[in-house]
Amino acid sequence: MAPIWLGAVAYDPKAVTIWEAIREVFREQRVPFEYALLSSYETLVEALFAGRIDVAWATPTAYLQVARRCGGEAQALGMRDVDVGMHCQFVVKRGSPLSSLGELRGKTVAFGSRDSAQAAILPRHWLEAQGGLVADKDYRPLRFDIDVGKHGDTGTSELNVLHAVASGEADAGALCDATWVRVVAEGLADASACRLLWTSPPFNHCMFVALPGLPAEKGMAFRDALFSMDFNRPEHRRAMELEGLRRWLPPHLDGYGDLRMAMERQGYFER
């Protein structure tokens, strides 16, 4: 079998360490495996459709773009345990009298990078769907378009959102619940200066995706090697910890409906 080429985005220097470790696991399983690190998810999607890679490690936004271009026939291959049941959150400054999304009318709301599902696309969707508020009409968006092309993977824009809320530059801000947990655990921002206002329904995040024409032999070999990774084995654990998971899961396809709707309404499939 020819090598399986995996494409991923170099959102952080640790990406090299992660994929080197995963390549070793695949080699243990006698699965020829190579990886290519790309600069953005837009180039990742194009590389997949150009046939330069077999499998893409995609954000939910990139996954849905691939699925749309495939007419819904994309092959979803697997995801992390932490990618199931994520949430968007809106936070406000501690002491703020705000108690609901509807009360953000006329206020300034901070968002992460415009291509981030968790810090921009879905929060904008939920403000309209749950709060009846339309951007630039009913509230003032404060956008932190940092690391555009990385789809929010660096988390930098969400830290800027928290700083804006804590400083009073914004009345509220949007971020992912996983980011909030990391901020509190690592002291990356003054989380004590903010409090939770609202939490969204769950959605699912990253996915390994391939085109419909991926040979069955490659698809099966990829899944078998991926699911062989065991957190209890030291040679596997470091890569899994760096990637933030304890177990790889089969695709859970039922957690993308809200994001798909948001991307349709916001014109992401037309770009």
Task: Describe it.
It is globular and about 60 Å long. With 271 residues, it is an alpha/beta fold. The mean pLDDT is 95. It has nine helices and eleven strands. It has helices at 14-28, 41-49, 60-69, 117-131, 156-167, 177-186, 216-227, 234-242, 257-265; strands spanning 4-9, 33-38, 55-58, 75-80, 88-93, 108-111, 140-143, 172-176, 194-199, 207-210, 248-249. Helix 1 packs antiparallel against helix 8 and helix 4 packs across helix 9 (257-265). Helix content is 37%, strand content 20%. The chain has two domains: 4-83 and 204-270, D-Maltodextrin-Binding Protein, domain 2; 88-199, D-Maltodextrin-Binding Protein, domain 2 (3-Layer(aba) Sandwich). The two termini are 36 Å apart. A six-stranded mixed β-sheet has the order 2-1-3-10-4-11, sandwiched between helices.
CATH architectural category of the largest domain: 3-Layer(aba) Sandwich
| Strand numbers in spatial order across the main sheet | 2-1-3-10-4-11
How much helix, percentage-wise, in residues?
A: 25-40%
Which whole number gives the mean pLDDT? 95
Q: Give the termini distance in whole angstroms.
A: 36 Å
Q: Label the structural class.
A: alpha/beta
Report the principal-axis shape.
globular
What quaternary form is this? single chain
Sheet bearing the most strands, described? 6 strands, mixed
Classify the beta-strand content into a percent band.
Answer: 15-25%
CATH structural fold name of the largest domain: D-Maltodextrin-Binding Protein, domain 2
Give the SSE string. EHEHEHEEEHEHEHEEHHEH
CATH class of the largest domain: Alpha Beta
How large is the count of helical segments?
A: 9
Superfamily (CATH H level) name of the largest domain: Periplasmic binding protein-like II
Detail the poorly predicted runs. none
